[in-house]
Amino acid sequence: MLPELEERKAKQLPRGFMRANVFHAPGKFGIEEKAIPRAGNGQAVVQVRLTTICGTDIHIIRGEYPVHEGLTIGHEATGIIHELGAGMEGYSVGQRVMTGAITPCGQCEACLAGDRSQCGGPLGGWQLGNTIDGTQAEYVLIPHAQANLALIPDALSDEQVLLLTDIASTGFSAAESGNIRLGDTVAVFAQGPIGLCATLGARLRGASEIIAVDPDPHRLEIAAKFGATVTLMAGPEVAGRIRTLTKGRGVDVAIEALGTQETFENALRVLRPGGTLSSVGVYSGHLKVPLDAFGSGLEDIKIVTTLCPGGKERMRRLMRLVESQRIDLSPLLTHVFELEDIAKAYELFGSHGQGVLKIAIRVS
Amino acid sequence: MLPELEERKAKQLPRGFMRANVFHAPGKFGIEEKAIPRAGNGQAVVQVRLTTICGTDIHIIRGEYPVHEGLTIGHEATGIIHELGAGMEGYSVGQRVMTGAITPCGQCEACLAGDRSQCGGPLGGWQLGNTIDGTQAEYVLIPHAQANLALIPDALSDEQVLLLTDIASTGFSAAESGNIRLGDTVAVFAQGPIGLCATLGARLRGASEIIAVDPDPHRLEIAAKFGATVTLMAGPEVAGRIRTLTKGRGVDVAIEALGTQETFENALRVLRPGGTLSSVGVYSGHLKVPLDAFGSGLEDIKIVTTLCPGGKERMRRLMRLVESQRIDLSPLLTHVFELEDIAKAYELFGSHGQGVLKIAIRVS
Amino acid sequence: MLPELEERKAKQLPRGFMRANVFHAPGKFGIEEKAIPRAGNGQAVVQVRLTTICGTDIHIIRGEYPVHEGLTIGHEATGIIHELGAGMEGYSVGQRVMTGAITPCGQCEACLAGDRSQCGGPLGGWQLGNTIDGTQAEYVLIPHAQANLALIPDALSDEQVLLLTDIASTGFSAAESGNIRLGDTVAVFAQGPIGLCATLGARLRGASEIIAVDPDPHRLEIAAKFGATVTLMAGPEVAGRIRTLTKGRGVDVAIEALGTQETFENALRVLRPGGTLSSVGVYSGHLKVPLDAFGSGLEDIKIVTTLCPGGKERMRRLMRLVESQRIDLSPLLTHVFELEDIAKAYELFGSHGQGVLKIAIRVS
Amino acid sequence: MLPELEERKAKQLPRGFMRANVFHAPGKFGIEEKAIPRAGNGQAVVQVRLTTICGTDIHIIRGEYPVHEGLTIGHEATGIIHELGAGMEGYSVGQRVMTGAITPCGQCEACLAGDRSQCGGPLGGWQLGNTIDGTQAEYVLIPHAQANLALIPDALSDEQVLLLTDIASTGFSAAESGNIRLGDTVAVFAQGPIGLCATLGARLRGASEIIAVDPDPHRLEIAAKFGATVTLMAGPEVAGRIRTLTKGRGVDVAIEALGTQETFENALRVLRPGGTLSSVGVYSGHLKVPLDAFGSGLEDIKIVTTLCPGGKERMRRLMRLVESQRIDLSPLLTHVFELEDIAKAYELFGSHGQGVLKIAIRVS
After folding, report:
1. Are C161 and C179 part of one and the same domain?
2. Strand, coil or helix: what is D186?
3. Is any Cβ of chain A less than 8 angstroms from the Cβ of B113?
4. pTM assigned to the model
5. ipTM of this model?
6. Which among B145, B126, B157, B129 has a CA at the least distance from the CA of B49?
């Protein structure tokens, strides 16, 4: 442990304790004291510098996504290695690191088969702020740390890499799973933070025309900066307009980045035969496949879903994109709050007000 | 044209005419006289030797799949080249050939992108017995013949290769599109002719456990011969039983070879996270995605659909499998009828009676 | 045929004749009169507007690549449809088109297997200016025109699309065949026109660091504009420098765009275990694999070679990249000559003088 | 630790000691006493039941492959878990397990990128009997045991699974890396144990014609049992004969399973344009690429090399193939020796006498 950091904390909290944003019941969550976690075998404790709020966190505090009472929320963070558990090799306390929202073990059958986000079972790669305490705290325990601690190059700030942990890795994966070819036409439905990253991902993979759809003109403006060549207001006519824009041909890849029946259906409706619907949306309620848009199953259509890829190798490659100045996610970080004000940050983020996209929560 | 064949026909029919199985209205179809087609540019006329009836043909005569009045039905055939249109190279009249049910042009954008079954537009590769006269006739016009006439090796009989044209190419493609890895566990829902070929395809691609599901014990027996290591009667418990059989792990690839909500849903329910649902079913009515089995879109699940791959290169490779004795589809050809008795063959095939699987229609 | 064009020609040449750059023997070639070709079945005659000289053409006139006496040289062109042969559909005389240097039929076994550049046999897709008369002429016969005439959108000039026909399609394919992942580090050996397009292709596919190597500082400057993040002078130390730059890790993908033992060997030496050497070079003499750099065959290294992909679908997608302003190849077109001055253009291109990269030959 | 096993050993050896086959210098190796290893963090000690000798081991004892003095040789084994280090989860002492010859950590960048055989660096996945003590001993320390201990199902004997650890995983991977399509024609050069498994692998992936080449008629007989449809004696005419057999077309995939200039060159010479040379050979000395067979780099040829894939997920799938009776490797286990007689086993294996293919070394 780094004694000077401990000292600083000691002024505010009992030794060995920290502040964390803890969920208790729908609508009931907030900053409270919790014991600083200790690193077990193959684990690390990271002193958090920067974290953020994800759409999923909003579902959690509203009780729409169930987590256990007393859980610390949050799955995105940069920080400093505070403690290394037994078995950890090649790292040292004090190094600046980030970890993906998904923290695969790398050693179970799912991981060895390449399905790292499904580590150990369905959605098993997502542990932070889901099945174990998360990142909206002064310290966070990182499981399977050997596979997940990614060193941040000195040249990059925390702000520059924070969003790679989840929304960029997810959004880019929508483009990657869609197998975009050079010059393909791509439509991206919804331009929230993940959709915007999907737009950017489509550009990074070499799409030509990228059609971004959203009901919010402000988000469409950012979409244009992120690579959209056409921006369309969401609405009942949007599928028809895309059909017209592509001269009836349809798009090669349609990305669904929201998780509603409407966007899923539109994505399917604008797809050319043989095309791919790449979904990173989280669906609830029900999902129907419109058979006319699906060619009754005879149009060689593929529907692929992807959960945010994690692991330190992924994170390293994404940081390389920032370092080589191929991407700049800073337009997405619209607001900054201190950890103690996180309740206000949740309020703002949940309201979609003030042009908010992502909020940096400064912890230390 | 081969004069001796023309001569033979002349005894029965006016010169230049042939017998064909023509659709007029739901329930109204049968053998009648029609002009022998003439080969236009890039086309060929094949004198049919053997054809068969497909499940789709049953939908057509029942009016469940719309085709234009006066169409000759059928899309599977072996025969002899009778006439070659201008521009055809490397073939000669009298050669014995087969063509896939799907006859891509090879030269449009869809074909050049590898989406040959979607040649020229949705489902565009399926022309025979759909948008142009089909194979249940003494002569059939083959479009884009340069890409579709596959020479039958002398060592193989018509009976040995007939089923490659559609059901084997389709069933095998279910296994291929599912990206089965060596040693994977595969479940195949429905063991009709296509499902049986999917079972065989899973074996050909190196699956270990192959779980075949069907309500018909006779079909399950054939499934076991085709490579199924476990056969299960269809029923409400089948998904649970497969979960148990795989010790809760689920299957790597689930093949849907029917096109119903029930089989689609079961296929999804038995899939492991990260698995692939490979569908060759034809759906009607509606299709719902059960979100629990879909992990709300977060389980890295892929749903891929495939329409029968055609083209002479595909057909050559499939014939090689027969020639090298890796596959033997003869157990599927359960009955033989003459062309003039095709109405009886339709009756039998539609009734699922007498253990019928596929019926060879002998034309010449 | 377009009468007005014929008329114009008639002023200069006997009716039905044109000027063409014809090869006779090593060092012996030049503009002469030739009959305007006539479009046979499935063919088209294109009145050439713009063509160019390729490195291969230099090999041809020097006798280093054998072609038959009397051949018209050249395989890159834009132009106007002058005549359409029987069987051509969906085109009309007067349309502005381009064709890839490779003109696959789409209908042979190689094409149907996706190996279109090997149409009909080894290198069989390359016919123009190789086995049939080429594009350095006022008119050129396009074989398999249905698969190869790509309409040029009105918004694009001939100059903007000319280089897509060969060097861009080839250079980009080096990046595509290398299976570059998002954030990968790529080294590109040699920055001639194809190597520069490979650099651009690596950028288009989402590489982070792109290391361009060439002995010519001017080409390295252009490489930097095309996406190279590091440029290195070729030399004996270059492999070591790349190893150092990547902190000993090596590059994920090494592209060889020249065809010499030295560049091939360097490409292999800088590759990480598990990496891919993607080659678009043309080798002569001999090629040795240094076993230390190859891990004696145990390093999971892949060596892939790619011949320029052709076909109108490929060309359409590449034109879309220009239209959506993702690429601009104009810096490569350094000089313009009229067809009658093509000998001078060859001299300049062969000398590598005046910063020449590619020369536009204006024909009409 | 299992006390009863310790006790048994205690009769023969000082407590905590075991017998192991140790290398000292070229030609100098043999059974001696060594301390039983202790399981560190994330490691396990396995009491060996069955091990075998690999061609690489012969290279080691001859000094052709350098290892450090005092190393225990061997990388293939089945056994009983004897001790589990800290951090191991889900296993218990006494379970019967096997591990692949390659033991990846699953957590380094190479592993997370899917290049598990290159774990931590070139060839880094191969540790057992290479960089750490190996399996020809009574006990062996398994590194990264969480990723590498594969439970053997009760239904399978040690003899049934032993060869999966290396030669089957390697041989099959030759077929997998070659991307064999259904009905492809495959040639396999050399029918040693790995080549025979490559032949079997080609069959498992759905090849039609499989042409096996070897100078040994006995091995060709086994090749025929393993799926070869044609067997050819190695010799100067073999490439020409394969060209004839394939009617000049060439093979789709050529597998090189030896590592000599001759077999590599033949593999390249019989390949069709667009085909893949899949190599699992270990080359020494030099390797030249014959440019005529390589199309000067223009034939869209791919050369892929693969080092034995390891990890428990791979091993589980391979065991499933045995359990579902799709493969039976028992014909390859031609001889059995006790550990104390291992010198004789090396002599026999090195001499290629008595029809030896693989020798089971019974340890406990």
Report:
1. no
2. strand
3. yes
4. 0.96
5. 0.95
6. B157
